[in-house]
Design goal:
The chain contains eleven helices and 18 strands. It is of the alpha/beta class. The strands form five sheets. It has a six-stranded mixed beta sheet with strand order 10-6-1-2-3-18, with helices on both faces.
């Protein structure tokens, strides 16, 4: 990848669109140089329901990131999520070609193609084919490609992620209207895992739970590979609606209360602590209520989501794969006390996933709600082949001054 190349991660969520611009420096480090956000109004549970609103949010986040970075966005790695995402494991088996029975890149390609020879409905597209392990002549599997090894039979286990064709098409239309090309579409769990999970956690076995605005996305890693992904159709919006109903306050005010005061019940919660709750209707005065009442509304919803995730993991037989515990990410994971609730449900160590692996403006993206956006940068750094830089249109004296400092 050429020096001073740029990569863009675009996380299009139900509540927020985040655009993050990264620069690959001369010493091949990835530094965040621009961040932009916009309120998302055109998605429901991760699926586009209003093209114009979604395109406008993308454009606003894009322009904010461009202004900060001093570059013009041409294309981006785009995150995708939602209840339309389906995944499964598959296996490809081939006979090794060639007289000397040495495995070639063509053999590996054929094995991967064979793994995709499954019945997929015409209304679905394959997003990812992720190799889990390669097996040569039924010997123990390895993550590494067995290139050059001798063998008669080559097997590969893969995790296949599919999406609804129409959902991807609508997303493409929104990006086209916003003037952003697509370098790649990446499952949010994969992106978030790159920014938050360590290789040791993936090797021993870990569960990632990304609680977004409309959905909760799950991923199970074991032996260094992705083995299971799922989507639970509940998320941060359900917390907000619960607060609006329970405290009898407008939904926009409930969202503000959730972000500022949201917490779970616990011994550290002060019974005397109060919050001001706006009433519904212009003539009614705000009420002063106990913060513990807010916690009593929020905690049952968190328990419900974690129970659904736990039941799903047990149903698929992965409950013994979480040797490193569980990682929480996404905006809702920032609620106070949610880690303790998850620990009680799963009976496992739980930590919150703040993104790592990048430099630059790290303080702007160091919270779990930026995990997917930062992960998209890391994914781009790993997979980009063209090395095609974004159009560099430095603007204004401040960006020229930054260039002068960099060159000096």
């Amino acid at each position: 990848m050429p020096k001073n190349d740029y990569i863009v991660g675009l996380d299009i969520g139900t509540k927020k669109v985040a655009a993050v611009i990264g620069e690959v420096t001369e010493d091949r480090k990835l530094e965040v140089i621009g961040v932009g956000t916009a309120e998302s109004r055109g998605l429901r549970k991760g699926v586009v329901v209003n093209l114009d609103s979604t395109a406008a949010a993308i454009q606003k986040a894009e322009e904010e990131a461009e202004l900060m970075a001093g570059v013009e966005i041409d294309s981006a790695y785009v995150g995708i999520s939602g209840a339309h995402i389906k995944s499964f494991n598959s296996r490809g088996v081939i006979a090794v070609s060639g007289r000397d029975r040495r495995i070639t890149r063509e053999d590996i390609r054929r094995a991967l193609e064979q793994s995709k020879a499954v019945s997929i409905p015409p209304d679905r597209d394959i997003l990812h084919v992720i190799p889990q392990e390669y097996i040569v002549d039924e010997h123990e599997g390895t993550k590494e490609q067995p290139l050059g090894m001798s063998g008669i039979k080559l097997e590969v286990n893969v995790h296949i992620v599919t999406s609804a064709v129409t959902s991807v098409q609508n997303l493409r239309v929104c990006l086209e209207r916003a003037g952003v090309g697509i370098e790649g579409i990446v499952l949010n769990q994969i992106a978030a895992s790159l920014a938050t999970l360590t290789e040791d956690e993936k090797e021993l076995g870990v569960g990632l739970i990304d609680i977004g605005g409309g959905t909760t996305e799950v991923a199970i890693f074991e032996r260094g590979s992705l083995w299971y992904t799922a989507v639970i159709p509940l998320g941060g919006d359900n917390f907000t609606n619960d607060i609006a109903v329970g405290l009898r306050t407008p939904i926009p005010e409930a969202e503000k209360i959730k972000k500022k005061f949201g917490c779970m019940s616990g011994p550290l919660l002060d019974d005397q602590e109060t919050i001001e709750v706006p009433a519904i209707g212009p003539s009614r005065k705000p009420r002063i209520l106990s913060r513990r009442l807010l916690a009593d509304i929020i905690q049952p919803r968190a328990e419900e989501i974690f129970r659904l995730v736990e039941n799903d993991i047990k149903r698929m037989g992965y409950e013994k794969s979480l040797n490193s515990g569980v990682l929480l990410t996404g905006g809702t994971s920032m609620l106070e006390g949610i880690e303790e609730v998850a620990e009680e449900i799963f009976d496992l160590p739980v930590r919150r996933g703040d993104p790592v692996g990048v430099g630059g403006l790290l303080d702007r993206v160091s919270t779990p709600d930026y995990a997917a956006a930062v992960g998209l940068l890391l994914y781009g750094a790993q997979h980009r082949k063209s090395g095609r830089p974004i159009k560099d249109k430095r603007r204004g004296p401040w960006t020229r001054f930054k260039d002068w400092l960099r060159e000096g």
